[in-house]
Amino acid sequence: MHRLTKLIAAFVATAAVGIVSAQVPAPMPSPVPSPTAPTSGAHDEVAMPPALTGQDLAVFYDGLLPFALQRGDVAGAVISVVKDGRIIFAKGYGYGDLKTRAVPSPDDTLFRPGSTSKLFAWTAVMQLVEQGKLDLDRDVNGYLDFALPPRDGKPVTLRDLMTHSGGFEESAKGLITGAGDKQVTLGDYLKSHVPARIFPAGEVVAYSNFGCGVAGYIVERVSGQRFEDYVRQHIFVPLDMRHSTNDQPIVAPLAPLMASSYRTASDGELQPFEVVHPAPAGGMSSTATDMAHFMIAQLEGGSYDGARILQPATVAAMHTPQRTAAPGLNGFDLGFYQEDSHGQRIVGHAGDLNYFHTDLHLMLDAHVGFFISMNSAGNEGGAGVIRAAMFRAFLDRYFPDRTPAPPTAATAGADAARVAGWYLSSRRNDSAMRPLYLLTQVQVAAMPDDTLVISALTDDAGAPIRWREVGPLAYREVGGSRHVTFVADAQGAIRYWATDAEPPVFLFQRVTGLEALGSVRWLASLACLVVLVTLVLWPLGRGLRRHYRHALVLTATQRRTRLLSRLGSLALFAAVFGWLLMLVVLSATGAVPLVQGTITPWLYVLYVLGLLGLAGVVAIVVHAVRVWVAPRRSAWVRVGEALLAVSALYLAWFIVVFGLISFSARY
Question: Which end of the chain is more exposed for a tag (fewer CB within 10 A), N or C?
Fold first, then answer.
């Protein structure tokens, strides 16, 4: 990925005509002063950006996108750009099918927008709000035939769902299935996959596919139509989106128009159609031209080519800020998330299946929309890199950012030390997969020059971004324009951080004490090492004693407790190692077994091992106590057994705190 992004950035900087600036590690000379450079005078000449026209876009992307697809090992892509109510550019690149070598058509080759589909669910909700059939601030349980679990006395509202602040934990089980698998209705899926609520409603942003599914189900119940039929009749038809559907799998006559999907272009192995649950969260298929029609409607007050799907006031409400994790940062409107950059007010939504990867951006004041979708994951996630680079290059070319950087705050040194530590994403599962999310904790490190490095945030070359403080707990990218803000409680303790370097779909909450990855990594490693050494020495010591004919003099009770202690060590190690093996498999398979829901039997095996491990801890501690009480054991033996007991007690704490015995299949 790093090599790919570096090459893309270099190509943008050198091969494309008329670029004003490029955000690369070694940028071209730019009219934007660097954070450490003196500000230029007010009368310095500034190069004007080229006009945003279809002809210029064709020259730009014809030179840029084929190169990016090749380097990213992505089979094909489609792109469309709208401006002032009309499509000014739409084109396909690469291959929609590697076998036929057919170039994808923006007009009639279907791609999978993934979570960008959510924008249609939110549009449907707002249509019913407009008609007085839905209330954004009413408890959604009043619209449902099942109940969402309570949390702190706060009901979940449609506004909460549209801003992803319903408080749900991540729910991935059964998210993607095969076209040949038994399919369930939207209502049945939701009722059997209700996630826990880990936050009070309206307080913490934590992206939720389930929440969007609930909104789509409410559309079904209130309208009396299947969600797929409602969207077709009330959005696709009026917007002349003739090649769009929410049917899964796609049926004739659109089925033959579906682009093929691949892991990588070089692999060339055709991948099956992915059925997404719940469907409103990501089940759509569409073309670049059809998506352009939707962008025009959203940009032009709810109408396209004389057909209206929303009133202008409703569209304006959808584009109005609702919640942000920190003042000044991008947050959520109604369904759209904010992506303000380059002095432009931007809203949008990305979408990812295993193989299709999409981005949609609306520049509200410029009346410009940008859509791109690809049919391969690419090498090391190349598709995700490409889509971000293509839009960033678009902004740099046509809307260059000339905002001067503010000076570094005087409190930089003290605050860097104050915010350093470990943080965990609010988008997580606490019921069954805490060990997985433990490994995703992010470290914020203070540097000697009072800047910060955040392990989750890197530049286009894959190098850590440095952040310098420009206001109270507010940081700006060194040499760039992205931001990170830390939020403290009333007592001054840091609660979390958020950033506009990524979509604002979650935030990172502080983790302290023994639950921080920095502590767990060392203590768990040492504890497991002690247990492993004990297990290795158990048969090894027996063999050495036999070889040298040296008997181990123990009473019957000591022999029994020693055997139970060693068996307990074996159970304890199996419990921890089993989870480690599970995480390795999920990592190697791209978490496909997780979203398919096939890990449930193995979870229960691991839970049983966890219980056996806890029983083993009791045996280890009992034996250690007996060794210290017995007068005939050596000091080395007593110290060794004590060390094993302490290690076992730590691992028992780990098993309980991180849910290795939760017996939950809600993941």
Answer: N
Does this model's pTM top 0.85? My answer is yes
Burial class (CB in 10 A: 0-12, 13-18, 19+), 579: buried
Q: What pLDDT does 44 receive?
A: 43
Strands, E, within 479-578: which ranges? 483-488, 494-499, 508-511
> Under a CB-based contact definition with an 8 Å cutoff, are residues 40 and 404 in contact?
no
Tell me the two tokens of residue 355. 């193989």
Q: Pick from 254, 223, 272, 255: which is nearest to 121 by CA?
A: 223
The answer to whether the CB of 157 falls within 8 A of the CB of 201 is yes
332 C-beta neighbours (distance < 10 Å), count: 23
**Which segment, 27-41, 124-138, 401-415, is predicted with the most confidence on average?**
124-138
Distance CA 329, CA 487 (A): 12
Q: How does residue 45 score in pLDDT terms, banded at 50, 70 and 90?
A: low
Strand partners, 442: 423
Tokens of 618: 């009791």
Domains of the chain (ranges plus CATH)? 74-377 (3.40.710.10), 412-511 (2.40.128), 517-657 (no CATH)
- CB–CB of 465/478 below 8 Å? yes
> How far apart are the C-alpha atoms of 566 and 144, rounded to whole Å?
54
SS3 350: strand
Q: Which residue has the tokens 């990218």?
A: 477
**Considering only CA atoms, which of 343, 344, 345, 370 is closest in space to residue 359?**
370
Crossing angle of helices 2-14 and 54-72, rounded to 10°? 150
The Cβ of residue 360 has, within 10 Å, a number of other Cβ atoms equal to 26
Residue at token pair 């890197």: 458
Q: List, for residues 381-403, the tens digit of each pLDDT value.
A: 899 999 999 999 999 999 998 88
Residue 452: strand, helix, or coil: strand
Q: Are 342 and 182 in contact (CB under 8 A)?
A: no
- pLDDT attached to residue 419: 98
* Cβ contact 281:106 at 8 Å: no
Decide if 262 contacts 268 (C-beta within 8 A).
yes
DSSP 8-state code for residue 306: T
CA 282 to chain centre: 14
Q: Tell me, letter by letter, the H, E, C secondary structure of 594-612.
A: HHHCCCHHHHHHHHHHHHH
> 253, 266, 283, 238: which is closest to 95 by C-alpha?
266
pLDDT tens for each residue of 15-30: 332 222 222 222 222 2
Query: How many Cα atoms occupy the beta-carbon half-sphere of 301 within 13 Å?
Result: 6
DSSP 353: -
